[in-house]
Amino acid sequence: MRFNPKRWARAATRCAAALLACAAIAPAVAHQVDTNAPLTLKDEGSFFVGGRDLASDTLSTLPQADPNGTVTVEQMYVQYQIPAHAKAPSLVLIHGCCLTGATWETTPDGRMGWAQYFARSGYPVYVIDQAGRGRSAANAVSIGGVRSGRLPPDALPAGFFVGREFAWTLFRFGPKYPQAYPGMQFPLEAQQQFWKQMVPDWAYSMGTPNPTVPSLGQLAARLKKTVLVSHSQSGIYPFQTLASGASGVAAIVAVEPTACPAATGDVSVYTRVPVLLLYGDFIAQSAWAPRYAACRSFADAVNQAGGHVDVVSTTDLGMHGNTHMMMQDRNNLEIADFITGWVGRNVH
Amino acid sequence: MRFNPKRWARAATRCAAALLACAAIAPAVAHQVDTNAPLTLKDEGSFFVGGRDLASDTLSTLPQADPNGTVTVEQMYVQYQIPAHAKAPSLVLIHGCCLTGATWETTPDGRMGWAQYFARSGYPVYVIDQAGRGRSAANAVSIGGVRSGRLPPDALPAGFFVGREFAWTLFRFGPKYPQAYPGMQFPLEAQQQFWKQMVPDWAYSMGTPNPTVPSLGQLAARLKKTVLVSHSQSGIYPFQTLASGASGVAAIVAVEPTACPAATGDVSVYTRVPVLLLYGDFIAQSAWAPRYAACRSFADAVNQAGGHVDVVSTTDLGMHGNTHMMMQDRNNLEIADFITGWVGRNVH
User: Span of the secretion signal (chains A, B) (predicted)?
Assistant: First the structure.
């Protein structure tokens, strides 16, 4: 067949339109980082930020240890990895309710988590355990006090120790345990591994702001240029950190925050850095609908005040079935690619 | 000067003797691994082993969560790194009393810990948090029960929450807080970071054997050929794991175990794998003297039964001033080199 320029131009236009349409609706299927290559690090390790000394006479209730002494409580554990050829900014990963930094590691079904993937993407990664949880010591002084009869039972901290039946709905695996939403992307076949990630959460007994907030401020000042990436219950922390005047916060990425700052009043402090509020699927029919609406109002207020808040749902990106635990969903690395793309475009 | 063969031979003999003498007493000053090169990993991540489901009606004492539900308790968190060119065996690092897996990471004064150093030495490294501590969930059911008045105060777990004054002597920084032993090698200038590593320890309320023991058995079976490296309070766990019939245990390295199995009775099960019991300095004048003597007797009994237990003090290696926290002492990497050398010679 002879080459026909007009016919070719028409076909090319149709082809380009089809490609554009596909790009707009298709999920990203190729990761931007080779997950099979070796992970090459300049350094890794851990340290603690914050904390306060506490003298007590109800430390131990065992005969082999002294009940008297000084412990440190409310410190924040930070585990970090610096890639061999690191770029700025760094990312601080802040887990949510009833969980620890394990949130960002291997997924329950054994796939790569965001912590390693972000390091492979070239970012220094700092994974924290919130004060009082995981490798950040819980304050057990009142337990010894109550057990030894020196304090009343209501001196014990109020715990948020969440059963899987409650978590199921909260994390939007489905409308009610054990029913799953159709097309839901959390790897339910490995749910036993996920339940083992859950720990007792004393955050609601630790005052406001949570001691994790000033520790995040210290960490950000030390890192100089960092993105605070929160999840769920920790969603308010980066905003509180920013409002406290901490230096070094380059942006905030809030994955399904439980709360945002109030949309009324002075929101000017939140105009200082770009903000991404990221949501999954099934929001409308869940307890997250009013939280989403409140954060949407906050975003509108900050944007009207000259700030830059993007509110994005994974469904806007052509992805479907994402849960509250999207960092562990089957398409977790595609969502990670979206986040690093957003950081690349917005943090300079 | 003319070459004189006899004179040369005499000088060479003197020189060789001097070198041998130096080698026998001098601490190893050069590390066997380049700590400045990039750390190149094939993979890293985490998973959980063991645990049991527990239904409770005293989970949460907060209005926003259901007190009823099912949680998982007694699981063991495992964080691993596989070097790009890994060799066998793997090493499982098991922290001691009142601490978590952070024990093996960066030292309090910011130097490289054993976990990274062993990975750089080519070994797959598995760092665990004992059941009930760190990222391994504590069982908080009784706290909710007592706080809500449904259980008596003595239903609370007996905690081993150790103050720094007690820990100071236990860890042999000195005879009594805040006096240090002369020449002591722990980086006391960074002690605040170390106190922040300490967490409440519920191990003594968890029954015998501790749930960590069967989990170590599962882990060893999965790893097929691994060295269980214990510290202090966890010292008895690898022996209990071996005695339980677990497969995959290639050797045991016990860093200052609090207890060894009894020297009397049948010790034949402990003849199956090579064992290293490793001690620091200042043992004689400390609470570790009777523990050392008991483990020495155990070693003698196993060796008489045809086993292979090496009892080594860092002072035997020409090192001085080592504490109970020798993995964080100033010469920690020289001790690590001794351990990898011992593993190389004894695990085939």
Answer: 1-30
| pLDDT tens-digit map of B8-24 | 445 544 544 444 443 44
Partner-chain contact A60 B159, CB within 8 Å: yes
CB distance B161 to A141 below 8 Å = yes
Q: Decide if B57 touches A, using CB distance below 8 A.
A: no
Note the pLDDT tens digit of each residue in B278-322.
999 999 999 999 999 999 999 999 999 999 999 999 999 999 999
CA distances from A243 to A143, A221, A311 (A): 34, 14, 20
Nearby residues of A214 by Cβ (< 8 Å), 6 or more positions away: A50, A244
Distance (Å, whole) CA B141 – CA B157: 10
Output the CA–CA distances (angstroms, integers) from residue A32 to A110, A279, A336, B45, in the order listed. 20, 21, 9, 20
- Whole-number Å distance between alpha carbons of A95 and A313: 19
Single-letter code of the amino acid located at B192: Q
Contacts of A114 (CB under 8 A, 6+ apart): A93, A104, A327, A332, A336
Cβ contact B163–A101 (<8 Å):
no
Q: How far is B259 from chain A (nearest CA, A)?
A: 14
Residue of B105, B118, B150, B161 to mutate, testing the A interface (most A Cβ within 10 Å of its Cβ): B161
Residues of chain B contacting A163 with CB distance shorter than 8 Å: 56, 59, 66, 68-71
Are the C-beta atoms of residues A304 and A194 closer than 8 Å to each other?
Answer: no
Q: Which is nearest to A313 in space by CA: A232, A236, A256, A239?
A: A256
How far is it, in rounded angstroms, from Cα A66 to Cα B264? 32
Alpha-carbon span A120 to A126, nearest angstrom: 13
Contact A38, B84 (CB under 8 A): yes
Backbone phi, then psi, for A317, in 5-degree steps? -95, 5
Contact with chain B for residue A163, Cβ under 8 A: yes
Q: Which conformational region is residue B265 in: left (phi greater than 0), alpha (psi within -120 to 50 degrees), or beta?
A: left
| All domains of chain A in start order, with CATH | 10-14+25-346 (3.40.50.1820)
ipTM of the complex as predicted: 0.91
d(CA A237, CA B223): 39
Q: Which residues contact B277 (CB under 8 A, 6 or more apart)?
A: B254, B257, B260, B295, B299, B309, B310, B311, B312
φ, ψ for residue A141, nearest 5 deg: -60, -40
